[in-house]
Design brief:
By secondary structure, the protein is of the alpha+beta class. It has two domains: 147 residues, 2-Layer Sandwich (60s Ribosomal Protein L30, Chain: A), CATH 3.30.1330.130; 39 residues, Wheat Germ Agglutinin (Isolectin 2), domain 1. The protein is built from seven helices and nine strands, in the order ααβαβββααααβββββ. The strands form three sheets. Strands 2-1-3-4-5 form a five-stranded mixed beta sheet. A two-stranded antiparallel sheet has the order 6-7. A hairpin with a 6-residue loop joins strand 6 and strand 7. The longest helix is centred in the middle third of the chain and has 19 residues. Pfam families: FmdE, zf-dskA_traR.
Length: 202
């Protein structure tokens, strides 16, 4: 008999492995869907704005259906464990900021991580690291949401829905590029890679 995979198992499959970062994104997504009373987004019913590009984002994609390809996942390179989710149908949005204590590993975990990723870990170190990772994941997944994060309902300007634009051939490299990304160079349309930006330092 083929058993349906759990949402967590689906997130792990998509990401490639389980880790505390993935658990953070999973927990954030669970909280957002519950508070917004939303199902996984089939199209652009939900919008997610993420402020990091860490493991957590893969869980956000799997759980909420907000993806880069659909245009309802917006990445802001701010290096923060902060996530904003907007429901178009409910006209509501939440900003979820993960608390520092929820992200901070214990000192043993930090030391083991350095050994494992630095290539100096023994088999025993690796086994201890895996056990510590598992404990951390379980702690995050079952943490009370008030301990895990700060949740705020906010005013949110929804982005335009994704559009399909015509493409044109770059006069320099010959590759096709979507119309809004074209630039003019010597009177011809070129892509961003072939365009030489002009700046005076401001």
């Amino acid at each position: 008999m083929c058993m349906e995979k759990t949402p967590w198992e689906k997130a792990v499959d998509f990401h490639g492995h389980s880790c505390p970062g993935l658990a953070i994104g999973f927990k954030v997504s669970e909280i957002a869907l519950k508070h917004l009373q939303q199902m996984r987004s089939q199209d652009e019913e939900l919008v997610a704005v993420v402020e990091n590009d860490a493991c957590s984002i893969d869980a956000v994609q799997v759980m909420t259906g907000c993806t880069l390809g659909k245009g309802n996942l917006i990445y802001r390179d701010l290096g923060k464990q902060v996530y904003t989710f907007g429901s178009r149908s409910g006209n509501r949005a939440l900003r979820i900021s993960v608390n520092g204590d929820a992200r901070r590993p214990d000192p043993e975990m930090t030391e083991l991580r350095q050994k494992v990723f630095g290539g100096s870990a023994s088999q025993e170190d690796r086994a201890r690291f895996q056990l510590a990772q598992g404990r951390r994941i379980e702690q995050i997944l079952h943490m009370d949401e008030n301990e895990f994060c700060k949740i705020e309902e906010i005013d949110f300007k929804f982005p335009q829905k994704a559009k399909i634009f015509p493409s044109h051939k770059c006069a320099s490299c010959g590759e096709m590029v979507m119309e809004p990304r074209l630039r003019v160079k010597n009177g011809e349309f070129v892509c961003l890679d072939c365009f030489e930006d002009y700046t005076r330092g401001w």
